[in-house]
Amino acid sequence: MLSADDVEVHPLIGQAHEHGWLATASTPPLGPSERFALQHVVSCLSLLMETPQRLTQLRDDLGRALLHQLEEGRDSPGELTHFGLSPDTAVALVAYPTATARSDVWRAQAERASAEANAIFRIDGDELVAVAPKPITVPGSHLGHAGLGGDAAGALERARFAARAARRRGVPVVDGEAALDVVLAQPAIERAVDAWAGRCSSGSATTDRSLYASR
Q: Within its chain, how far is the Cα of 54 from the centroid?
């Protein structure tokens, strides 16, 4: 407990919310000049505590913009170096929540896991898209990953197919580099396989009925 003639608690306020408080104790009480200097200290501390959050938000915003450009093939993977990521060793990641995951909880977990891994990422609805230094774990997710290898657009596409395959199989992770399920998860191939399976099923049923009638 502070014991002094003059005890005060000063909120450290940023643009959106309070970051904390500064408690001061002085004997004798502060004079006008000391109080003026204290207010400057409080203002400086508020700015210092606000700056890391602003920088983090700015990095996230720029990362989301870069991801969109990489997916569309409109930017070079070399831009990743500005975020501390190597185009040669970085990994593309896509994740979808499991059927049992709560949407709000999943989004918070996906955001936290991506931030802790120093990834650039975006979350649109129930899809997490990220580029990270290495594969990461996102709780409550079906996740696909693929090595970037200088082809960001292709890697992100493979990671998305792999995540769809993981969701279809009900498994946590599928590697987008070698899994057959990744190929089968592509929408065009998926539709073709379903159509082929439908024709086979229909043909088999017709054959069975013909054989039965001939007996």
A: 18
Nearest Cα to Cα of residue 30 among 62, 8, 48, 60: 8
Claim: this prediction has a pTM higher than 0.70: no
Encode pLDDT of 137-155 as tens digits.
Answer: 999 999 999 998 878 899 9
Cβ burial, residue 202 (10 Å; 0-12/13-18/19+): exposed
Residue-wise pLDDT for 91-133, tens only, equals 999 999 999 999 999 999 999 999 899 999 999 999 999 999 9
Q: Strand, coil or helix: what is 138? A: coil
Q: Tell me how far apart the alpha carbons of residues 35 and 12 are, in angstroms, rounded to a whole number.
A: 16
What is the rounded distance in angstroms from the CA atom of residue 126 to the CA atom of residue 160?
12
> Are 29 and 36 spatial neighbours (Cβ–Cβ below 8 Å)?
no
- Alpha helices by DSSP H, listed for the chain, are 32-71, 103-116, 152-169, 180-184, 187-214
pLDDT higher than 50, residue 210: no
Residue 103 CB: number of other CB atoms within 10 A? 10
Write the CB contacts of 197 (distance below 8 Å, at least 6 apart in sequence).
none
Give Rg (Cα) of the chain.
Answer: 28
Strand partners, 132: 91
End-to-end CA distance of the chain: give it in Å, rounded. 98
